[in-house]
Design goal:
Blueprint (H helix, E strand, L loop, with lengths): L5 H17 L4 H25 L5 E3 L2 E2 L2 H10 L7 H16 L6 H23 L3 H5 L5 H8 L6 H10 L4 H23 L13 H5 L7 H18 L7 H20 L2 H18 L12 H15 L8 E6 L2 E6 L9 E6 L9 H16 L9 H4 L6
Helix pairs in contact: 1-2, 2-3, 2-4, 2-5, 8-9, 8-12, 9-11, 9-12, 11-12, 14-15
Amino acid sequence: MAIESPLFQSSMELLGHSITHFNGTSELDRKLVILHLSNSVELLLKDMVLDSGESIYKNPKETITIHGCIELLATKKIAVPFLNKLELLIDERNALQHRFGSPNELTAIFYMNVALEFFRSVVKQHYSQDFDELLAQFADEKDLIALKMREPSNDSELENLKKLGKVHPLGALLSAIAYLEKTVLQFGAKVGMGDRYLSSLPVSARYLEVNGIELPSGLRDRLENTRRLRNQAAHGRAEPTREDVVAAVSSIEELEKFLASLNIDETRQKVAIARKQREAERPSYESSRVLLPPDQWMHETLKTFLMSETAFAGRKFMIDVRDANVSVSHLPEKLPGSAQVHQYAFTLNEKGDNISSEAERIRAEILKDCLAPQDAVRPETESFKEIAA
């Protein structure tokens, strides 16, 4: 495929413009992020269709839609990466074009990450180009620097999040959490934690403690406050401030120093002992039916259900499963707004072979609760419980 194609060039230009607006702070900026990203994806897909030997015109005056591109590429056995998330981007674009309003910052962050990963994959696989080098030709350097600040890879870049927090507190906080997650997982790989008992987000003190690593009480509390703020922000129940970002970054830096001070060999032994203790304490269940710990199995099963259930088309959810308790947050269409939080408990028998029936029961309850008319929703004390982060 040729990067000199007018469609490809226009696609990259729109992507560059979307990054400029992504670094903006207004509601119009966030709306333009979605519109530009969707149009840039559409143009890139049309260029791929042309390169496959097919026409992008369905009549002399009209080109095929983005869905038409996807269908044509499928007939050519050309895979479209991140297709399920791109379809959500298309729906978001269509909604913005047919109603007033603008997406919240969390939505803009989500779709920017999706689009960047999509372009990175396609540019490498279909155009044999380095995406980062190519992007630098279509985006302002200052915009790329600001974008890179959201993806810290070392202590120096992590410190820059404090500056980013002045303009984009939520984006800076989520980037700090991603850095924290990567830090913990990299350390876990060194000491043999693995990911078999991985929580939905390994940013809590509990994740380290169940693996035999005790944290100083002050550090533990600060990490829990960071995790709690992240959950509340993700559910639309709190807006992080610059001070919150500074505190989160400071906690992460403190954790890095603490982990670096640990003796790797001694820590590896503690992790191994903790693993044996968990194995001894875990309830037995039929491994031929369930290959994951119950909480993780239930989380993956219900997450797939929420993403694939056609009755939930266009709706957004967050799910957390911990200690045999399921929390499903039905997010508002736009902020400000309250997330409807529904909670369900499940109980396994001695063998654990009833987990599928428990999942089926919870799926039915989720459908009933989340599709109920607004005036039929349970009172706030039940359905809108504060998220216990």
